[in-house]
Design brief:
156 residues; mainly alpha
Length: 156
């Protein structure tokens, strides 16, 4: 839980909404996003949704969300911004020389998709995260029991 997990997509969505306000109704451009990202970094903040503790390439879950969005909501103004951010942020972060992984993670996109599909009560995003995580754990548990595998006891 916390901002590196359940609240991450909320933080990403909040940042995207800030950029939308700054756009003042205009179409996003790569140049505008690069400038906004540089201002964000100069103010001591990070660009939420970019970077991952383990991955050193675009998060495959992000890429699946992107593929889905390109098919189902490519004309959504918020998706147009997410698309522009996808193109602008990694090279901008790489130029700083401080970021090991400048690529988007799953949270950079998931908030936009939930918002597009009318889940606009952002406080529920953590619940959606927890339910989806629980479903995966339970599916693994059921298969383990069905196959007669021992109960897994992780160290952490």
């Amino acid at each position: 839980a916390g901002p590196l997990h359940g609240l991450a997509n909320q933080e990403c969505l909040a940042w995207l909404k800030e950029v939308m306000v700054a756009l003042n109704g205009k179409e996003p451009t790569k140049e505008f996003v690069v400038d906004y990202v540089q201002k964000t970094l100069k103010s001591g903040k990070v660009v939420p949704g970019f970077g991952h503790a383990v991955l050193r390439q675009p998060d495959p879950r992000y890429m699946l969300e992107r593929e889905f969005a390109l098919k189902h909501c490519k004309d959504d103004p918020l998706f147009k911004l997410v698309d522009c951010v996808f193109q602008a942020v990694p090279p901008t972060l790489e130029k700083t020389g401080k970021v090991k992984n400048p690529y988007p993670n799953v949270d950079a996109h998931s908030g936009q998709l939930m918002y597009f599909y009318n889940l606009k009560q952002e406080n529920y995003y953590t619940v959606v995260f927890a339910v989806s995580r629980s479903m995966g754990v339970m599916a693994q548990y059921i298969w383990s029991r069905a196959l007669g595998l021992p109960i897994e006891r992780p160290k952490s």
